Amino acid sequence: MKSQTFRLEIVLERCLERMARGEPLEVCLSDYPEHADELRSMLQAAQRLQQEPTPEISPTVRRRARAQLLVHMAAHPRAAGRQPPTPAGATGVAAVLRRLLLGARRRPLWRPALALATMVVVLLVGLTATAQAALPDDPLYGWKRASERVWERLHPDPLTTDLLLAARRASELAHLSSEEETAPETLEAAGASYAAAVQELEQYRGPEAEVRIQLALRRQRALLRAAGVEMPAVSPPPAEPPSAPALTPSEDIAPTVTLPLPTATALDDTVPEVTPAPPGVLPLPSPTLALPAVEPSLLPTAGGSGGATPAPTGAPAATVTPSPTATPLLPPVDELLTPTVPWLP
Amino acid sequence: MTQRILQQEQESGLVHRAKDGDGDAFAQLYDAYIEQVYRFVHYRVGERQLAEDLSADTFLKAWEHLDRYEERGLPFGAWLFRIARNTVIDHYRTRKAQVQWDETVFQIEDPDAPDVAEAVGTQLAAERVIGALDALTDDQRDVLILKFLQGMNTATVADIMEKKPGAIRALQMRGLQALQTIMGVTDEVADV
Fold it and tell me: Is the overall model pTM greater than 0.90, yes or no?
């Protein structure tokens, strides 16, 4: 019975739709003969309703009512961007999202967004600055290393950056080793970090770079030694084959000038001796960088733009005139020894 | 008076402007819907004056609560008819007008009013239909008015009445059955 009623509702709806499209009543009834009697009375009632004259509001009343509405709207203005009241119980993520979306649509949100962005930037800068003093067992140490990686990518002088980073690792290692409560694994990790930083320096070649590296490493060794960190001995630099045939002294070659360069021997006088590490100390790497032996005759000469290149035949390539105003290729030793890492103790 | 028909995009733009406080935009929505709202209210209350009051009240309420309307599948017209329907229900519930409308608006003589004969004929016809509709339940009456006197489809009526289409179809069938019976009786009385 219920299903029959439901079917009749559906059939009635279909017939009403067909009649609305202009189909005659009888055609629709013929399609549903089993419901024809019931359908006929209902469809006729619907037709009678549709044929009733429709009441219309008079234009004058409508105009006056419109004017009254305008007066009312002027007297009760709606605030632009007024937020809809939150329905009772509409809390949680959905309600917040809804308010945010509606707010974005009706009200410019750039001000709070700008304030939020500024706060985030200030927070990041402050966090980064604070993190620079972090040690490997500090929570901010990861942030410090991340900021260093950004620094490495952005700094125009990679050698300076790597020297500073190696100095930082040495400083951290010295700090940790001077603290009694430092865990052995932390100390070991710091040593490994320092070793890695030193290893990074091996990629740089050239007299100036090697001098700077050598000086920095000696300073760091001194620092670590003062902090009680024993390091393995510095291995001597491997003997490099001569890159150019040795010059045979010739009477035709003008005498060369020896610039007042710091030599390894001279520096060694100012740096404590490096003693071999006993078993059990931190496995620090042995820096293999060292000043190459520089032939006095290959050193740059005063006013010379490369006139000292030896010719394979031993013939005089150029005549180098000694000058008292000769400019050395490398900066003075004092300058090189000046600490470049201000935060190093 | 021809009724302004708004395209959906145009209506949506007017609604947005009205929500931002633009009274002119809301006045255009009034122009588009006043006839339909008045017709519905008139069939529901059966009095011209009261229908005008309640129609105007419908638009005042719509203006006041426009921020509650959200275009999420519910056309603005359907939302407006919900307000009109609730306004009529409230009227019968309280039996007093809810709006302090300026009486002078409606007490001035209307030069556009139809002539007496036409007005009486329309009124009698409407009263006859309204008289028959009065015998139905409120829901049945609303369904028949919205579907057959306003020409809306079942889905829109369901939106306005906040019911499912199946419920509207059921109300439609029972309402038509009852109406046919009532109008058949009144026809017989009229013939006598």
Answer: no
